[in-house]
Each structure stands twice: as C-alpha cells, then as structure tokens.
Amino acid sequence: MSAPLLEVRDLKMHFPVKSGFFSRTKARNFAVDGVNLSINPGETLGLVGESGCGKSTLGRCISRLYQPTAGEILFKDINLAGISHRQLLPYRQNIQMIFQDPMESLNARHTVGEILEEPFLIHGIGNAQTRRQSVSKLLDTVGLPARSASRYPFEFSGGQRQRIGIARAIALKPELIICDEPVSALDVSIQSQILNLLMELQQEFNLAYLFIAHDLAVVKHISDRVAIMYLGKIVEQASSNEIYHRPSHPYTQSLISAIPIPDPHHTATRILLKGDVPSPISPPPGCAFHTRCPKASESCQRDVPILKTVTPEHIAACHFAEAP
Amino acid sequence: MIKPLLCVSGLTTEFQTDEGLVRAVDGVSFDLPPGGTLGIVGESGCGKSVTALSIMGLLPRPNGNIQSGSIDYRGEDLVAADNTRLQRIRGNEISMVFQEPMTALNPVHTIGRQLTEVVAIHTDQSPAEQIRTAVAMLQRVGIPAPELRMTEYPHQLSGGMRQRVVIAIALICEPLLLIADEPTTALDVTIQAQILDLISSLQKDFGMAMIMITHDLGVIAETCEQVVVMYAGQVVEQGSVFDIFDRPKHPYTQGLLRSIPKLTDIPKQPLDIIPGMVPSLHDLPVGCRFANRCQHRAAECDEAGLTVDAVTEGHSVRCLKWRQL
C-alpha cells in the first residue's frame, strides 16, 4: 500500500469562548477533539455529520485556515500544524478548498478571469500570456465558455459559480482538495452535474478529496471511504458500501435510517433520536452520544469509547460495536 | 365524489420587477381533498413558493399580483376575498409553516406570547384559557417543559425546537389546511426525521389537509399522496405519488428521479444528469420550457400551444412526446 497523502493525528481545535468586560475565556468549545484520519493519493474520504459536529472546522484546520490547538497534520510527511505561514506557502498550492456558497467565496468585484488568475500571481507562476492561456484552459476544463473570463460572478447561476470555484481550486494542480458542502446549495439537477465534474477531475488529475457534507446519499456516491463525525470526534469509518450496508455505530444507524428515500413503496423503519445534539462547549461525559443513544447503558455515561476495529478497514467508537 | 377542500385553477401570478413583468406562476391547477396531502416539487424559481403565497394571500404588494385564475376554498374564491376575510382564514383555517423558523418567529416576543396571540385573534378564550391551550399545544409538538418554554425567547431554542414552535403556532387553531414550505430544509437529517414524523402524526390527529412544498423527492415520497411537479412556473406533470415515482412521463420528472444519488447506487459511478439549466423567467421560450434541456426534443416542441395531456385518470403531463418515450 502506498503512503497516505495526508495523515491527521489526534487533531484538536478548541475555540475559546469569551465573555464579560475583559473578554476572559470562560469556557472552551471542543469543536474538533482528537481526530485521526488519513487520505491516500487520488482517494475521496467523505466526512459526514450534523451541523456543529466540527466537520467544517476539521476541514479548515487541514487547509490551515485555522491554527489547530494540538495534533499533527502530516502532508507528505511534513507536519503542517507546526510551521509558520511563510513555510506553509509552498504547501498552499497543494491543498485547496471548495466552499458551499460560491457567491460568498468569489470576489464580486473581480472578473472571473481575474479570480482565476490570482492563484498564479500569488505563487508567481508564468507571465501574462501563459496565465491567460491557463485561465481559458481552466474554464474549458470545468465546462464554462471562454468568454466567461470577462464577466463577473453575479452574472452566473449557482451551478456555474460553483464551477468557477472548482476552476480556482484546481488552478495550481493541487493534490488534495477540501470540499466543504460543495453541492448543498445547488438544485437537484445541477447537483449531479457538479458531482460528475468532481469525479471526472479526480480521474484526470489524480486528486484526493476530503468531501464534507451532511447528505449521506451524496457522500456515499462520491467517496471511497466515509467517516462519520459527532461532537468533534469521528465515531465510525469504513468504505462507503460497508458504512451503508453494515453500519455499526448507533449514530450512523439512525443517520442512515433518517434519510427520506425517494421511493413511495419504501416503508421507513426509523430509529428516531431523542432531542438535539448537545453543545460542544460542554460535551457529555463518557460517550458523547449517550444522551441520544437508544442502546446507551451505564458504562456509556462513564467510559469514553475508543475507535476499535469491527472488520479490517472498518472502525467504530462504541462499546457495543462488534463484528457482524 | 368528495368535494375538494381546495381547488386551484389556472392560477397565474405576476411580479413587477426592475427588468419588467415576470410570470412566476403560469396557469397552475390542482385539487386537494379534505385530509389529503399534496406535494409540490421543483427547483428554485419554479414557482412553488409563489403558488403557496398566492393561496395564503401573502404576495408582496404591490409588486406581486394574481393576474388570473381562481383559488376555490370550500366554495369561496380566495382571489376575490378581501383582506379582512383573508385574515380570518389565515392562521385559523389555513396555516403555513416556513423554511426558516428564526425568521418566522418574532425575536423580541416570548414563545408564549406568539402562541396566545393566534388564539386571542381567532377564538374568544379568556387569557387563562389561551395559556392553557398554548401549553397543551407545545406539549403536543413534543417540547419538553412547555411551561418554562412559554417564557423563553426564540434565540434560546435550538433549530429543531424552533421549528416545533412554528408548527405549534400554525396548528393551534386546528386548521383544515396546512401549507408547509420546505419545513425541514434548514434542519439536520435526524431532526428532519423527527419533524416529518411529528407533522404526519399531527395531520392524522387533526384530519387536516396538507400541501408540502419541497425540492427533496425523498420527503415527497414519504409524506405525499398526490404530487405536482413544477418547472419554470408551470405544472409539467401531476399524479399520484406512485404515478410520479413509478411511471413518470415527463422527461423532466424522469431526469430528476434519475439524477439524484441514491443510497443503493454503486459508489463513484457517473450520475445521470439533466444538462443545461432552467431558462430565465424573463426570457421564456414560446414552446416547451424544458425543450433546451430535453434529450427527446423535436421541432414541434418549440412551437406555441403546448397543452396538458391526460395519461390516466388523475395523471397528466405537459409534453408532446410522452407517448413515444
């Protein structure tokens, strides 16, 4: 097996919660609390969880938009968590991001040509002429007409804007792209166009994706492996088929059972969870899921479950998880 | 034959915009029997929410206007009804639940005040009775410690709890018709499941009819009996939920069903797509509005005069070529 492109070890991101006159830190938000994961070259790792589970924070730590509190981010064996912004610059080319709302992540006052040229300028690549060629090549790659370069983001539809966001992300031929809910804001018929584009680009450029989304059907479709996150921790991880057919963590099981199936003949046997996700500022002791878990016992309130192997390549953090 | 509770026919709603007149809803017709559930599905800008606002008489004035058509509610045309009459019906007989509970609730009033206000307007209960009704309703929508919640403000609740409050406000007068406009889109999957469950159990208890507006075909399949598929302001297909999911006739419905990733799919296979995008409402073609994205397009599809064809009793489609597909 080849060496992983990215390896995250015991990553923690604790945000201080400040209040009062002197803005003293009153508490900490355990947004990401000890995450381990790895991504191989050309592979897609899906990251699924509900709002506030820390999936976006994790993505932003890996691209070093946030400085993590603790842990290692090994990209090709270099620990990105510990190096300065200046030292980081060469790696920024290699790790790019695609955001949910392309209208917010594209500068409205720049033409699409300027937006796509910027990565080359920042990294001092090429001259004016080669940059122009690169821009029109990028537009072609993501399926936009060449004349788009002289237009502004507002002139495009949501799906087209996401194509611009993708073009910017692949401009410098990165090896890893963090996709943070890239299709959630799009209409159904446009969503499949963008998913296909992402899969084509992966084939063509051997891209690795960390694909963050809340829609399990979408994530399952595009990912090789899927990790499920709950309150700052990964609770289960397996291949996308395995996680859907043999989910082992009660949270994953209820998540899958909650998805509305577009088939009127399907009768849902839902595992309804009680209540809401607890606050990451004061996560429950023991297993963080025990407050909503249908299987919770006394030990779950006390002992923190660790990720254990269910079958090879399938891990789950539950006291009751076992090989089927 | 049961008399329909709501009968929308030829509803056409227009908006005055900076770029001219836009027809957001164009000749929409459907019936809803008492206690029935109708789903309206379509992508953003297809006119599904404007249809709901037209029924509720909540179009933004003076820009939005019902240009023609009728909305027959228990023998009364709501298009012709004046504002006083509509106010008596709204919240009492016809209620609405919106997508974003934080914007539907008033942030500076307590939950209790927002609930009792509705009761005070539509019934002659005493203040003490109003509070009892409100507490009972909060309990019914599954809010723990309802007495305490009555004194709290919307920002103190989670998204799922807020949506429960919005549902409680909508149902407190036991309406005959509930219009739910993307009620679970802003919620997480596990919370969505709770809310959908709650809505359908309340619907059974109260025997009310419901119009469920959503872009999520999964939600439609789980909750609705009848389905209306809208595209660029028009109804392109309607029928029972089984007609739409098992025997879709319109190329748009077919494409939509094929293009969504399903949990049973083999991962990493290319998805079927509908190429291109929805035409602008400012610049609609005279013929079929889906023609530019349709793989079965023929010359006659671009001619004016496209009508709705009956496939079977209750199943109709707006397509020239449906027999050949």
Provide a brief overview of the structure.
The complex is a heterodimer of chains A (324) and B (325). Chain A has 324 residues and is an alpha/beta fold. Chain A contains 11 helices and 12 strands.
What class, by secondary structure content of chain B?
alpha/beta
Sequence stretches where pLDDT stays below 50 over 5 or more residues of chain B: none
Oligomer type: heterodimer
Main interface: chain pair and counts: A-B, 49 and 47 residues
* CATH homologous superfamily heading of chain A: P-loop containing nucleotide triphosphate hydrolases
Beta-strand portion of chain B reads: 15-25%
Account of the protein in words:
In chain A, β9 (225-230) and β10 (233-239) form a beta hairpin. Chain A contains eleven helices and twelve strands. In chain A, the strands form two sheets. In chain A, strands 6-7-8-3-9-10-12-11 form an eight-stranded mixed beta sheet, sandwiched between helices. With 324 residues, chain A is an alpha/beta fold. Chain A has a single domain (6-94, 172-316), classed as Rossmann fold, CATH 3.40.50. The model of chain A has no long low-confidence stretch (mean pLDDT 91). With 325 residues, chain B is an alpha/beta fold. In chain B, α4 (111-122) packs across α5 (127-140), α5 packs across α7 and α7 runs parallel beside α8 (189-206). The longest helix of chain B has 18 residues, at 189-206. Chain B has two domains: 1-93 and 175-194 and 206-260 and 273-278, P-loop containing nucleotide triphosphate hydrolases (Rossmann fold), CATH 3.40.50.300; 104-172, no CATH class. Chain B is 32% helix and 24% strand. Chain B has an eight-stranded mixed beta sheet with strand order 6-7-8-3-9-10-12-11, with helices on both faces. In chain B, strands 2-1-4-5 form a four-stranded antiparallel beta sheet.
